[in-house]
């Protein structure tokens, strides 16, 4: 079930009404309802993989209890690695087996041997990377004695499979979400209205910005050999806005939807295209994943405590692993490695935490220096996005070589002026709201009600007016 589907338009109000008017007297009943709704939401995609989600949930719940009550460290160690091995095993089979098999066959071919790799004809279960990471963080935190194992299976199952975040995040932590699930919740009108406002902005990002960009991105990338350098550059920029509108739009809808049920999810985006360096970009892009790798991989590897060589090693590891997390393709690994290279000067010079405050805080416009810093960071991000979008490494390099040709300074053959105007308006609104949790959180709050609601109605009209061909959320494939 997609957030931008007719099915979800009916699903959400029904669950909301049942939640606040039928089960509101009992937190136990509310959580049972959320679990049933979440499983139904997931089963609408493919009911067969619901059993994989259930098994993963039961595995981590059971091993968590076993670790909690283990008589010695050896027993705790056994249950911990059993959970880690099975979770990563499922992820490896469904997501990475074919990649390794085909890569091995290709490597062997360079030695003069030809083999036909045995591959699996299976589809990737939607959201497996996200709910697997929910479970991994849970068992790791128990193993490290950061939390106690959850005894209530329903509460734990809701933590893993809460439908707003189930298929594309944010990647939650048990320390943040489980206490909210266990605590009695009361309806908060102000919080609910704020949630609806964030859902509206998320839908605008997805339907108006991302989906319209997708049409031109697909046209340009799928026929890149026939395009001019300027058109290819435009396609790369459009993809940057497509993936931002698509993924941050999903996160806004997820966070806003959770707020309707009295639950606060982790923030996942903080206006990353206004970053002044790559380090700041990664503090603002897919925040829940970045912080997950920092806490569960970077810091255990030694973090920044050692010398430059250790910092360089650890940085490359987390970025390459992050790239590989996104997909079983060398393009994602190169994408991650590129970001490691981009961030390396600030890591070596220890300037990676220079830009912690919002750019141009309490000012309308950035300084000239800030403007060029943002322009450079955006350019680097766009360049790396080419590898993220390309079909393979060869396609990525041919695309880049096509950009850096004489035709780079020609007029693009594709001229979607309406889309360029929409993006400009979108970025202006994002800039004005960059100090808030999302762009329109406070926009128009001091305006009179008719004017403020006119803004909301204008956004709703835009959703229908500019709605193009439905595009699946990009991060569903991860």
Keywords:
66% helix; mainly alpha; 17 helices; 478 residues
Q: What is the N-to-C order of secondary-structure elements (H for helix, E for strand)? A: HHHHHHHHHHHHHHHHH
Average per-residue pLDDT, rounded, comes to 91
Number of helical regions:
17
Class from secondary-structure proportions = mainly alpha
Query: pLDDT under 50 segments (min length 5)?
Result: none
Question: Which percent bin holds the helix content?
Answer: 55-70%
How many DSSP E strands? 0
* Alpha-carbon Rg, integer: 23 Å
Question: What is the total number of structural domains?
Answer: 2
First-last Cα distance = 16 Å
Largest sheet features: none
Beta content comes to under 5%
The geometry reads as globular
Describe the structure.
The structure is a single chain. By secondary structure, the chain is an all-alpha fold. The protein is built from 17 helices and no strands. It folds into two domains: 6-187, no CATH class; 190-276 and 355-477, no CATH class. The longest helix has 37 residues, at 73-109. The two termini are 16 Å apart. The mean pLDDT is 91.
Topology of helices and strands:
Layout: H1 6-22, H2 27-46, H3 50-68, H4 73-109, H5 128-143, H6 153-161, H7 174-182, H8 189-222, H9 229-260, H10 278-284, H11 287-298, H12 308-326, H13 330-348, H14 368-389, H15 393-403, H16 417-432, H17 449-465
Helix pairs in contact: 1-2, 2-6, 3-4, 3-5, 3-6, 4-5, 6-7, 8-9, 8-16, 8-17, 9-14, 9-15, 11-12, 12-13, 13-14, 14-15
Quick structural overview:
With 478 residues, the chain is mostly helical. The chain has 2 domains: 182 residues, no CATH class; 210 residues, no CATH class.
């Amino acid at each position: 079930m997609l957030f931008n589907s007719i099915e979800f338009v009916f699903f959400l109000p029904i669950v909301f009404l049942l939640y606040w008017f039928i089960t509101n007297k009992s937190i136990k009943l509310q959580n049972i309802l959320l679990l049933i709704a979440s499983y139904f939401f997931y089963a609408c995609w493919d009911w067969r993989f619901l059993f994989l989600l259930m098994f993963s949930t039961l595995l981590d719940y059971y091993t968590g209890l076993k670790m909690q009550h283990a008589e010695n460290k050896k027993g705790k160690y056994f249950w911990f690695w059993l959970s880690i091995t099975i979770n990563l095993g499922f992820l490896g089979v469904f997501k990475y087996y074919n990649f390794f098999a085909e890569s091995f066959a290709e490597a062997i071919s360079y030695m003069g041997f030809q083999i036909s790799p045995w591959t699996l004809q299976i589809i990737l279960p939607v959201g497996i990377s996200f709910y697997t990471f929910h479970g991994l963080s849970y068992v790791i935190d128990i193993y490290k004695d950061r939390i106690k194992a959850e005894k209530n299976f329903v509460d734990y199952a809701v933590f893993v499979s809460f439908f707003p975040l189930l298929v594309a995040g944010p990647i939650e932590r048990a320390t943040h979400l489980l206490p909210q699930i266990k605590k009695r919740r009361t309806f908060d009108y102000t919080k609910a209205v704020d949630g609806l406002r964030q859902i509206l902005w998320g839908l605008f990002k997805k339907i108006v910005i991302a989906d319209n960009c997708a049409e031109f991105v697909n046209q340009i990338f799928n026929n890149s050999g026939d395009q001019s350098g300027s058109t290819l550059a435009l396609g790369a920029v459009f993809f940057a806005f497509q993936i931002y509108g698509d993924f941050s739009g999903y996160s806004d809808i997820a966070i806003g939807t959770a707020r309707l049920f009295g639950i606060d999810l982790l923030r996942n985006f903080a206006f990353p295209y206004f970053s002044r360096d790559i380090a700041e970009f990664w503090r603002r892009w897919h925040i829940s994943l970045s912080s997950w790798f920092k806490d569960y991989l970077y810091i255990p590897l030694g973090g920044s405590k050692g010398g430059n060589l250790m910092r360089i090693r650890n940085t490359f590891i987390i970025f390459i692993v992050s790239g590989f997390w996104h997909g079983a393709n060398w393009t994602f690994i190169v994408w991650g490695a590129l970001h490691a290279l981009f961030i390396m000067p600030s890591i070596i010079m220890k300037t990676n935490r220079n830009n912690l405050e919002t750019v141009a805080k309490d000012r309308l416009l950035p300084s000239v220096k800030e403007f060029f810093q943002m322009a450079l960071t955006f350019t680097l991000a766009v360049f790396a996005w080419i590898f993220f979008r390309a079909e393979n490494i060869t396609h990525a390099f041919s695309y880049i070589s096509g950009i850096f040709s004489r035709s780079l300074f020609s007029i693009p053959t594709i001229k979607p002026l309406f889309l360029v105007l929409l993006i400009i308006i979108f970025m202006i609104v994002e800039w004005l709201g960059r100090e808030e949790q999302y762009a329109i959180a406070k926009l128009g709050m001091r305006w009179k009600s008719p004017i403020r609601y006119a803004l909301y109605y204008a956004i709703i009209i835009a959703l229908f007016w500019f709605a193009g061909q439905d595009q699946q959320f990009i991060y569903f494939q991860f």
